[in-house]
Amino acid sequence: AAAAAATTSSQASEEALAVLQHLQSLPPQDDTQLLSSMGQELMEGQVVQFNFVESWGDPYYMGLAGLELLDKDLTPIPVSMDMIEACPRDLNDMKGVSGDKRRLENLFDGHCRTTNDAHMWLIPHTPRGDHFLTIRLPEKRALAGFNVWNYNKNAEDTERGIKLAHVFVDDREITSDRGVFFRKAPGHDLFDFKQTVLFADMLRPATGPAASNQASVQQSKVLDRTMPEYVCPLHPSGFVLTLRLLETCGDPFYVGLNGIALLDPQGQQIPISPDNILAEPHSINVLEGVNGDPRTPDKLIDGLNDTCNDRHVWLAPWDEHQKAFVQVFFNSPVALGAVLIWNYSKTPARGVGRMQITLDDRLIFDGALRTSRPTSQAPAPYSTSDDDQHQTILFTDNEKVVAEEKSRVVTFSATHGRELRLVENGRIVQAGKRYDAYHSLNDQERPKTSVTSKKP
Fold it and tell me: Which of 56, 237, 398, 443 is 20 to 30 A from residue 81's alpha carbon, by CA?
């Protein structure tokens, strides 16, 4: 069990680091887009109160690295300590504790992107209890929302971060019964892990089930009738969706996918920005001598999925001893109704044979994918087909969605179309060549692949 836990922790750390590296490469966030999304829905108030009700797992402590109130232009509002109250105030309220450096004033000292807990705030956590933070402004003013940096001392202590809060403006709760979820901190400070929460988003009526970062173990009778051969959580919700690629469909050198799509519990497609998807390895462009190959992660969400067009698929080097995953992340929790997968079709053996899906590091699927049909039967290059061959992992009991996707639901009986592997003295013998099963492949053994056509 300890070994399994260590493996899971290692996977989560590698995935978190990939997110960090990806976000670090992105341009600064354009506040204009956030402002346009708010419309005219601004709050006016003088007293803003937070009730922090749940941590990311630590039963004893909870805290934050930084907090900012935002005015109508998304500019931080200056606050002084005489405007701030907290109960409990910090760890120094505990019997026998004095001089702890993780004090309330650290929350507003401007050092938010940090792993130094001398710039963080920490309080005792009482499960199912109330933990209040109140900001009293000198006068009423227009409020757009707030920026929050979760507790970020290290990867392990991110569980002390705040997961769920209720927010009040002038004694009016604007989060209703749902509360608002704070994204877990990364455990590093390689990028600004700020989360921007807009009051306008809280005021809009919910169009789906109440957000919940815990994948429900409930399974619907409607889902039972589809007979997927795995326990299907109903409407799991979270910030970060990870596809862990565990096996290919037989190719020892490359792994790829044509596309992915996410549906909400009502069957509507969830928008994904190219800035919110990453892969590790990124693409075959990480190989020596390869540059500018178009088979990059953004092609997974371009909508052209039933195709053999190299410019609309993702491909990466494969090494069964190295982690490979695709990750999608959001600024607020997203409830899932289904995950749609289009396996790699140009060279079917390069498709994904087995994968796991996690949502905020919680396993919600582990199973096999079907091999795509052979290239000779696949659509011609630079064209798409009406015979959509995606595979579906269901997380909703919406009868319309279930009826539409029932014939495509992934089952453990999915076949990979693999060639027979012969093993001799611990070495895999394949196509006249031998690959050591106990060390990573040498890139010199890897067959070259590239896309040179300029046809769109």
Answer: 56
